[in-house]
Amino acid sequence: MEQSRIDRINALAKKARAEGLTPEEQAERDELRNEYLAAIRLSLENQLDNTYYVDPKGEKHKLEKKE
């Protein structure tokens, strides 16, 4: 996610605490938050896809996805 979009999320959060948001700004904030969370989930999923664990015998195993 681009830094400018993260800065916009922070600006909207600061404004919400200080004076409140208009309905349009609330919708923009929600959309940006959802995009940010999706980026975090994708990053975590990619990290877990490249994670291995070593069993007591010393063998490497790839993590399996749970259904």
Explain briefly what this protein structure is:
With 67 residues, the chain is mainly alpha-helical.
Overview of the molecule:
By secondary structure, the protein is mainly alpha-helical. The chain has one domain (3-62): Helix Hairpins (Orthogonal Bundle). It is 64% helix and 9% strand. The chain has helices at residues 3-18, 23-49, and strands spanning 52-54, 60-62. The protein has a two-stranded antiparallel sheet. Helix 1 crosses helix 2 (23-49). The longest helix is centred in the middle third of the chain and has 27 residues, at 23-49. It is rod-shaped.
Key features of this structure:
2 helices; 64% helix; 9% strand
Topology:
Layout: H1 3-18, H2 23-49, E1 52-54, E2 60-62
Antiparallel strand pairs: 1-2
Helix pairs in contact: 1-2
Oligomer: single chain
CATH C-level class is Mainly Alpha
Q: DSSP helix count?
A: 2
Number of strands: 2
Distance from N terminus to C terminus (CA atoms, Å) equals 28 Å
CATH architecture: Orthogonal Bundle
Number of domains: 1
Mean pLDDT score: 93
